[in-house]
Amino acid sequence: DQQVKQNSPSLSVQEGRISILNCDYTNSMFDYFLWYKKYPAEGPTFLISISSIKDKNEDGRFTVFLNKSAKHLSLHIVPSQPGDSAVYFCAATARDSNYQLIWGAGTKLIIKP
Amino acid sequence: KAGVTQTPRYLIKTRGQQVTLSCSPISGHRSVSWYQQTPGQGLQFLFEYFSETQRNKGNFPGRFSGRQFSNSRSEMNVSTLELGDSALYLCASSQLAGTYNEQFFGPGTRLTVL
Which helix (H) or strand (E) holds B34? Predict the structure, then answer.
């Protein structure tokens, strides 16, 4: 069973506009969430994280929102730039899984000029 | 500072063979984790080593094993290869134990099993 779901395999956004990537989870015990970005032929790189005690975390153009009641988080990128074209992975972890990271399948973001 | 390196980058094996993949973490990093990525799937956690001890293990059969050396370098071994083992194998290192800490990934080893 997929505990972390990224239901959009791909997303196309105009340069300069907002990109919103979504992630849903089923395990209510998850207490820490991370986003990683992956370019082709490279390993993922850490982007931003959020603890379950917060509902928002911001880092420059990147903001992650957490809605615990809906078991949903989203990553907002404003404004979107060509270099943001990549695959974005959402990952979650919980104390009851010994803090093992559970990853979503990824969303491919394409920024159009 | 040099990044995480993985060797080899590409590997072709046949069913029933075994394979060993190598990972050199960033200098000073004592935690090394291994992941399997297949098309359309997220990363599946294999195991994490910290200071030569396996700290955590994912849901993979015993054919998948690993170890970590005193210099923090790590190897992953897969015995009796199956077609379904074809995947990108990623290694990640971090300073602290626990995959919830920021991890730094290598480029991966692409394993093809024929």
Answer: strand B31-37
